[in-house]
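Field reference: sequence -> structure
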Amino acid sequence: MKLSNLEEFKKWVIIVLIGVVAFWGLNNLKIIGGWLDNIYTVFSPFILGFVLAYILNIPTMKMEKLLKAAIPDKYEDDYKGLIRVVSIILSLLLLIGIFVIIAFLLIPELIENIELLMKNIPGLIDKIEVFAIDLLDKYPEVQLEIKNAFSQTGNVTKIVSSVLNYMLNGAIGFVSDFVSGFVTIFTGLIFAIYMLAQKESLIDKIKKMVMAYLDKKKYKKLFEIGRLANKTFTSFISGQCVEAVILGVIIFVVSLLCGFPYALLIAVLTAITALIPIFGAFIALGVGAILIAITNPIQAVIFIGVFLVIQQIEGNFIYPKVVGKSVGLSPLFTLLAITVGGNMFGVVGMLVGLPLASVVYALIKESVSDKLRDKNLNF
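Structure field:
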C-alpha cells in the first residue's frame, strides 16, 4: 500500500472511530454524566483551588508590580521570592478584607431586619389566619376533610413522626454538607496558594510536556491560544466585578430614593449575584421582593417594577459595554454568547460562555486576517 493511501486510510479510520464514540456518547449521556459527576467530586478541591488561584493571581500580579517598582533593580532578583510571598499574603488579606467589610456593613442591618421581620410576623400570621377562616367558611367540605384527616390518632402520630424524621435528616445532611464544604474550601485554598507560589515552575512543566508531544507549529499555536484565553478570562473577571459593583450601587441609590427597606442588604446581595452574567441579579430580585412583601406588599410590587427597569437598562446597555468591551466583543455578540451558553450549560455556561466566545471570535478574526493577507486583500 502506498504511503499516501495509508495516510488516507488512517484518516478515515480516525473519523469512523470518532463517529462511533460520539454516537455511543449521545446514547449514553446519563452514564457519561455519572462519570463526570464522580470525577468532579474527587477533583473538586483541586478545581476550586485552580479557580481561586486564577482569581487571586490578578491582584497578586498587581501587588508584585507595585513591590518591584519600590525596590531597586539590582535587588529585584534577591527579593523575588519574598515579593511573591508578600504579594500572595496581601491578596489573601484583600479577599478576607472584602468579606469582613461586607459582614461589617450587613450584620447590623441584618439583625435590625430580623427584628423587624419578627415584629411583622404576628401580623402576617393573623392575615393568614383570617384568609384560612374565610376559605373554610366558603368551602365547608375542605373543613370536613381536614377534621377527618386528624380525627384518627394514628394519622396525627404518623404526620408528626414524618415531620420529625424530615427535620432530623435535614439537620444531619446540613452538618455533613457544611463539614464537607469546609474541607473542600480549605483544601482548595491550600492548593491555590501552592499554585500561586510555584506558578512559573508549573507553567514550565506544562510547556515541556506539550513541546515533547506536539510539533513546533502546533505547540506554538496552542501557546498562542493559551495566552489569548488567559488575557480574555482575566479581562472578563475584572469587567464582571466592575459591572457587579456598578449594579449594586445603582440598586442601593434607587432603593434609598424610593424608600425601599433593606436597601443595603439587597444592594450587596445584588452585587454578589450579579457576578453571574445578566440573569444572576434576578436572585436578588426574588429575595428582595419577598423581604419587602412581608412589610409592605404594594411596595414590593413597585420594587419589582423598578428593579426590572434597572436590570433591562443594565443588561442591554451597561453590561455589554463594560464586560463586552473588556473581552473585545460587541454588545450583540455579548448577549448572544451569554444566552447560548446559559441555554446549553446553565449557570456555568453563563459564566464561561462570554470569555470562550471572545477567544473563538479572536481566533476566527485572526485566521480571516491571515488569509486575506495571503491573498493581498486589505479591508
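Note: The mean pLDDT is 77.
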